[in-house]
Amino acid sequence: MNGSASIPVAEEIPENRSERRRLARRGTRADVRQAADVTGPDLGIRLLEVSETGACVRLKDAVDVGQELNLVLTASDGSHVYRGPATVRWWWPAIDGTLVVGVTLRRRLTADEVLALAEH
């Protein structure tokens, strides 16, 4: 054996989003809590991306696909743009031990709300 292992290449997963994802503006925040414990600890570290129907957030603790979370998205001026339920659609571990998590929002964001949270 030559010491190099063959690593299988993953199949490309088709993009199913109908809305464009946008990078979150500096200074925005994502407050994320377990739906069953709204007074519990904030799991959110950072809002990474946002679209009309979802968001990508970095979290401190594990969640399960399909899990319901309480989410508050705050613009850089401090205004609450979204406050309500969100469902975990996917997650993966980041190299620093945190989680990158994709969620679907219960209510669709307006174009102005997306602009308040996203880079221009």
Summed up, what is this model?
The protein has 120 residues and is mainly β.
Separate helix tally: 1
Mind telling me the CATH superfamily name? Answer: predicted glycosyltransferase like domains
Total discrete domains: 1
SS-derived structural category: mainly beta
Major sheet: 7 strands, antiparallel
Helix content estimate? under 10%
List segments where confidence is low: pLDDT < 50 over at least 5 consecutive residues.
Answer: 1-15
Net shape: globular
**Strand coverage percent:** 35-45%
How far is it from the N-terminal to the C-terminal residue, by CA?
52 Å
Mean pLDDT: 88
The CATH class, by name, is: Mainly Beta
The CATH architecture: Beta Barrel
According to CATH, the fold-level topology is Thrombin, subunit H
Q: What order do the SSEs take from the amino end to the carboxyl end, as H and E?
A: EEEEEEEH
Q: Mind telling me the C-alpha Rg? A: 16 Å
Q: Which strands sit side by side, in order, in the main sheet?
A: 1-3-4-7-6-5-2
Characteristic key phrases:
single chain; 120 residues; mainly beta; Thrombin, subunit H; seven-stranded antiparallel β-sheet; 7 strands; disordered N terminus
Question: How would you describe the overall organization of this protein?
Answer:
The chain is mostly beta strands and 120 residues long. The protein has one domain: Thrombin, subunit H (Beta Barrel), CATH 2.40.10.220. Helix content is 6%, strand content 41%. It has one helix and seven strands, in the order βββββββα. Strands 1-3-4-7-6-5-2 form a seven-stranded antiparallel beta sheet. A hairpin with a 5-residue loop joins β6 and β7. The longest helix has 7 residues. The protein starts with 21 loop residues before the first strand and ends with a helix. The N terminus is likely disordered.
